[in-house]
Amino acid sequence: MIELKHSSEGSILMSKDRRDGKYIKPEDSIHAIMPYLMPKRTEAEVYLQDSIDVTELKKFLDDKNKSINDYKITVFHAFVTAISKTIYNRPVLNRFIAGKRMYQRNDITISFVAKNKFADEAEERLLVLKVDEDMKLDKISSKIYNDVTKVRKEGGNSIDDTLKFVTKFPRWVVTLIMWVFRKLDYYDKVPKFISNGDPNYTTVLISNLGSIKSNPCYHHLNNYGTNSIIVTIGEIREQYITDSKGNLNKRDVLEVGITLDERIGDGFYFAKSFKLIKHIIENPTLLDEEVNRMVNYEKQNKK
């Protein structure tokens, strides 16, 4: 969205900011040309896959859950917190490409899908969590639990209702509607009541495939919206791992698959960011700190 602003000298400037992000001028020619070479987000997908030791995390959560009666803090809640903390530490992850321009997102938002029940015919509900900088694991876990409980009880939210309404029309009408919405998306004109509850406009979309006893996959990005990262989490499995002293230990491990839009950063930055997620999960006391607290993980890992 282009706005008129007045400079200190009184001249009129054209703002390239959007309501959900601030315009960023690319730091190098490679990232400047990328949106033109690869205008679609699905043309710029890169993938990361690794396993994370969650043995200490499970012990940590077991201790915390002893004092909670209403619900349980889960591994999924911990991952949402760890990913949020990583994004606060690594802000390039909160960038997106829209209208062939790069933006820094104003907020950190995490989206996920909740089924009404674990059955093939069960409907899926879309949920979006805004992560404030002072939130910790306990607050994030409570918010997720309450939001999931509410949407399952009420049977949906605004974006679910909008999708149901639109898809009732004939195919040619739906096609026309989506053409209009893609144009609105390009110029930052999508109505707030739609974009605010749409996972396509969030920082990260997380899919917990471990909840259905499945391995992670590489989920595609979408060419609509501003979402640049999708994370899938697999089932926890026992593995024998050799430690630094050569001893074989049985550990709880899960695999993670990540799909990213390479136009927002580079492979080196992405790889270091994933190492930070692992560091937080494998040192779970960090989850009890505010998500905006900086983690000097490189210095700690050198010790």
Task: Please give a handful of descriptors for the protein shown.
303 residues; alpha+beta; Chloramphenicol Acetyltransferase; 12 strands
What does this structure look like?
- There is one protein chain.
- Helix content is 34%, strand content 24%.
- By secondary structure, it is α+β, with helices and mostly antiparallel strands.
- It has one domain (3-302): Chloramphenicol acetyltransferase-like domain (Chloramphenicol Acetyltransferase), CATH 3.30.559.10.
- The strands form three sheets. Strands 4, 7, 8, 9, 10, 11 and 12 form a seven-stranded mixed β-sheet that branches.
- Helix 3 (75-89) packs across helix 4 and helix 3 packs across helix 8 (267-282).
- The longest helix is centred in the middle third of the chain and has 18 residues, at 137-154.
- It is globular.
